[in-house]
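<context>
A single protein, sequence plus fold
<sample>
Here is the protein in question:
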Amino acid sequence: KDFEPHQLMMSATPIPRTLAMSYFADIDISIINELPPGRKSITTKVFSDKKRNEILETINKHCLDGNQVYWVCPLIEESETLQLETAKETFQGLSDYFVKHKVGLIHGRLDSKNKKEIMKKFQNNEIKIIVATTVIEVGVDVPNATLMVIENSERMGLSQLHQLRGRIGRGDKKSICIMLYKESLSDLAKQRL
């Protein structure tokens, strides 16, 4: 007698082979490794944070072309123990620099009403650049967003980077993801990025 599937599980996150073998040992696994129709591949670039000024010019060009930008930071505000870029400082810096482009800020400490209002403005192209924490990692679909900058990307895992990068390239325009790192990269971090 043939078996019929009674459960379907889906994930957009790449699951490492060893984890899949142990976690899904008795389940058939299918991998869809092609883009949805009409989508273009996303170019990923890795830069030292010393190239920040060049990236600001790239952002300006994307905005002038009618596109939108995500700038992702690992922290909301300063930490006593971690010396990482923060969403609040980045928002202030980008707001001061991009006087002709509306800059928004979204993070996990905002109440859900505020988050929805900010994301609606971003989806409606009222906000050109949105500074965010990883709160935008899932459930966000803005086809006009063509550029993403991820601060301190060397500190994030492969699945998280993949999920974040998946916020761009959702339309028919060419998209770029810029991974910014501080200081020197370990061999493992280089491979991951």
The first helix runs from residue 17 to 23. The chain has a mean pLDDT of 89. The two ends are 47 Å apart (CA to CA).
